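User: Second chain of the day. Same drill as before.
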Amino acid sequence: MQSLNNYLYQNKSISIPGLGTLHMERIPARTDFVNRQLLPPGYTFRFDKYFDAPGKDFFSYISSVKHLTDYDAIKWYNEFAYELRSRIRNREQAVWEGLGTFHSDDNGEIYFEADRRYELALGPVTAERVIRENMEHHLLVGDRERTTGEMPELLTHTESKKDSWWIYAIVIAAIALSLCAVGFMRNGFRFFSSGNQQTVPAYQMPVISR
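Assistant: Same format as last time:
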């Protein structure tokens, strides 16, 4: 049985003639935020009643590890699968040593239950959030590299520039108004007074005969 288990661990699936395929799927590490833990990775088994024909490489593997001919390797594994199917059909305990147990329900559906004793004996790890104050690291601002220590000063300088634009606008507007006032005082009254002294010439209308 250990040779079959090793094949499953290496290839993550093993097909059983007349029964189905047992898949080994990896469960990645998970984060438990509530309890502040990092849960370890693990494995779960999934049984699929389809694709029950082992490949040629499987029998080559059995032939190699058990030192059998290809014919004897095929015969040995088919006998193992037949015994497993018979136990399931008779509602007996069909144990796959080192992995778990096959069983069927009243409708004939076959299930596989993994043995918890063979799971990875890894426990959760405490995961505390670490906050490092006043630690500088580099940032890319536009096309220039800055540090977090430079950013407050840079942002303050930028905000001061944004807040002072209206001062320049008021100064420019005041200068423009002053120039307009000076020009009006110098030329404005002269323009109106010279306009009043002009005379409009009178033209005689032609006589239209009837």
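The chain has five helices and eleven strands.

User: Great, on to the next one.
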